Amino acid sequence: MMQFALLIFESPEAFAARHADGNNTYLGAWRAYHKALVEADIYIGGDPLHPPETGTTVRLKDGKRRVQDGPFAETKEQLGEFAILELPSLDAALE
Length: 95
Fold this sequence. Notes:
two-stranded antiparallel sheet; 5 strands; 3 helices
């Protein structure tokens, strides 16, 4: 078996939808997908992340450490969650 990291990027609007009521179709679709991964016995673990504004970026350049509050770059999407899956092959993971 091999482990794969599933990185989930979301727009700021989708990220904010996590706190919407239970009838949100976007959130409902992700919950159904997560349930399918768990039921298929391939979900190892994962967690949603905090908003990018709460992060810290650490870079090493020319031997010097640079620490910056907030995300590395301004983008239209942000990394919202990660999941670790265990499957027999890359083809199975892509499927």
